[in-house]
Amino acid sequence: MGRFMKMSALLLVALGMMLGSIAGVANVAAQDGDMPTVTVGSKDFTESIVLAEMVALLLEDAGYEVERQLNLGGTVVAHEALVNGNIDIYVEYTGTGLLAILGMDLPTAGATPAAATPAVGATPAASGVDEVYTIVSAEYEEQFGLQWLEPWGFNNTYVLAVTQETADEYGLETTSDLAEVAGDLTFGGTQEFLVRPDGLPGLEAAYGFEFGDELGLDPGLVYSAVDGGDVDVISAFATDGRIPALDLVTLADDQAFFPPYFAAPVVSGELLEQSPEVADILNQLSGMIDDGTMASLNAQVDVDGMEPIEVARTFLTDQGLIEGES
Q1: Residue 12 domain-assigned (yes or no)
Q2: Are residues 51 and 177 in the same domain?
Q3: DSSP calls for 131-144
Q4: The pLDDT value given to residue 326
Q5: Which of 32-41, 149-158, 162-171, 229-238 is predicted least confidently?
Q6: How many CA atoms lie within 13 A of 144 on its CB side?
Q7: Structural domain boundaries, residue 131
Q8: Which of 14, 141, 161, 245 has the fewest CB atoms within 10 Å, counting from its CB?
Q9: What is the pLDDT of residues 230-264, one digit of tens each?
Q10: What φ, ψ does residue 63 adopt, rounded to 5°?
Q11: Which CATH number goes with the domain that contains 66?
Q12: pTM of the full predicted structure?
């Protein structure tokens, strides 16, 4: 009888463990069922795609199912996709949000609205949390129901770039130096840059010159156009690895026309209501990428021919933020 009672007790323990295991699996499945599928978007240039892959990989590592809608197009296309719910996240730049989306002017000293507060999880110490960031955070939430997360550290501002030969021929060191010669030069930039207020129209108005001709180009062709002599001056990104690779000279923005362009994820407020932990996951990269690091990551794609997802995965693995592929 004692042996029977002992065997019964063991069976009950085993049954309890089995039921607990099943309950645990059911619990995990229920949690997984509560985790929404997240759609990550990007604009149509290398850096935006690399950053989108970082977002996607971080979320996948945390257990989210992710759909990618990369290379959507320019700023307006990506923004509208987010507003309309076609995507849930993409990485935007503070200056672009302020000028191209909100249509606002750069703030003067002390002009930050008192009601403006940092976005979810943001802290004043985070690199890139400045007046422009604070304004776009408040306005995006009020106007679109979107949240800016913490900036990731680098400032990918626009710069004008020329070949060393052009710089030597015309004595170009600053953007103001173009005033005497711009009429003899051809400018090349993306179609978006040719019409944006923080692009060519505003630049020419601020500096008081006008190029002799202008050429709208696909983002992937801008650098080869100046390198091949099809244009003389281009709009470039400060963190683009092709600038040093092609030995291009960047002209100092001596009148400080271009605003700060700190990169940060912009996220659907609805997604954050459902899964607030998304902010914590993506804020792990707060202040972690400086200008030089971003330029190196871009060069791995544009110069070395690596795939954006592999560049993103290697960086996140090296930082200990995700587990590498086995």
Answers
A1: no
A2: no
A3: HHHHHHHHHHHHHH
A4: 53
A5: 32-41
A6: 22
A7: 38-155+260-318
A8: 14
A9: 999 999 999 999 999 999 999 999 999 998 999 99
A10: 105, 5
A11: 3.40.190.10
A12: 0.78
